[in-house]
Amino acid sequence: MVSDPVQGREACAKEWWRDAVVYNIYPRSWRDANGDGHGDLPGIIERLDHLEWLGVDAVWLNPIMPSPNRDWGYDIADYTAVHPDFGTMADLDELVEAAGRRGIRLVLDLVPSHTSDEHPWFRAARSDRRSPYREYYVWRPPGIGGAPPNNWISYFGESAWTLDEQSEEYYLHSFLPEQPKLNWWSARVAEEFERVLRFWFDRGVGGMRIDALQTLVHNPELTANPPASERDTSLERRLGQRFLHSGGQPETHHFVRDWRRTADAYEPTRLLFGETWVSSVDDLSPYYGDGHDALGLAWNLPFLSSDFAAISLRAVVERTMSVLPSAAWPAWAMSTHDGEGRAATRWCQGDPAATRCALLLLLTLRGTPILYYGDEIGMTDATSQPASVRRDTAETAAPRDRSRAPMRWEPGPAAGFTSSARPWLPAPAAGVPTVAEQRADRDSVLWFCRDLIMLRRRHPELMAGAMRFVPAPEGVLAWERGDSGRGGVVVAVNLGDAPAAVGLGPLTKGQILLGTDRRRDGQTLLGDTSLDPREGLLIRTV
Ligand code: NOJ
Description:
Elements lengths: L21 E4 L15 H6 L1 H7 L3 E4 L27 H13 L3 E6 L9 H8 L11 E2 L20 E4 L4 E4 L14 H16 L4 E4 L23 H6 L11 H14 L6 E4 L10 H4 L8 E2 L2 H4 L5 H14 L7 E3 L9 H4 L5 H13 L3 E5 L62 H5 L5 H14 L8 E3 L6 E6 L7 E6 L5 E4 L5 E7 L8 E3 L1 E4 L3 E7 L1
Parallel strand pairs: 1-2, 1-11, 2-3, 3-7, 7-8, 8-9, 10-11
Antiparallel strand pairs: 4-6, 5-6, 12-13, 13-14, 14-19, 15-18, 16-17, 16-19
The structure holds 1-deoxynojirimycin.
């Protein structure tokens, strides 16, 4: 086992992610070092300076394991290797070490719910009904007239069952047919993943983002899923079915607790960050266990999917704070490689002032902020390509390629992402100013984001402090961090379309630490102030 790769830092902070800013890299699109048009691990090593300068504490990489890429890495064919497009295991070790020297931990993406159909386990399983690997997957004979075993549908809208001609049985898949579902009712599957976790943790990897946790355990009775109702995710409503029995079984939490015991056997403990794709924050609670014995962080889809309006955001944040176990720690993300896309487009329509407000929100709520690459420069979604040239072929509500476009580093061909004339996804010819341009402009979104992260470090109440919303005029969201009445930090953001007078009494008495309009930095406030539409302030109260 290697010791903690993060040097110069108290490794004792047991749950280190509580103070962390996490930065999510879609590795194929961040930086291509070898000029083949695909981002890679050496490219990430080359640009670690950017992450260190920005002040992030952990980097989560979308999957880097070998995969035939039917679902761009989320169909894994070998859980303990690196896809050659991204480099080698030596590159991975170097990245862990080089990031560690900068105080940055590496978090990988683990996909335990399904494998690729090219994984040796599945090949063996389908080749022979008596194979010891048969039980790793979910098989059922055809129903009457050759029908699938039940009504379950996949997240991509087709039947969740595909007939395997070779062995004449149906197998289950929650996503593409090329992503056969693993059978977590087999003890051997759990043992395999125990080994996988240890393999990466032993290399100094700081944790795992765990894909599609809500699909991990299915109901073995194969009870039919009911129709979707108003309380379900937009996806379930669109597909007309609630995924009640095809996943989400209570046994899931038993496995998460086992993984947590494994993670806690390391020093420092490893992060388990679950993708918990649920429609209501109420359903997140069980994934956290008692707050310390299950997931460290859980993906908050209702927050990400909220409107960018004070009333909606307040409702989802307040609900999250009230329903999670008191010891649990929320995670907040506003952009994703999936269909919801980037906040700079979805929430802010490309308006840099609104993007600053979104960053101010994300980085000052109580919990761990997850930046998606490009959030720090206000990167917007790329324009959608015609279906014939799309790289992502999955049937999703919105094309996912648009939020996976190459990072915008510097002016010039492919915005500095690659020297290849053929990036794997087109680098938009124009768009938000690049990293280099924004570094040269003290008034840029990038500097705003960086200054905010530095302020988090200087004001511990922004990380660990209590949080409570305070009354504010319509359209304005305002909250306090720190122990009430003892002087803390107040954030006020006007997400409405009209200017707002904000009189919060003692809460607007103090000094502006940071304004989305940077000319207000350092101003003294005497008890009330006003905010333009899409203007926000971070105030140190007296
Ligand atoms: C969730 C991932 O974020 C998505 O990109 C993927 O298609 C599915 N899980 C299946 O692994």
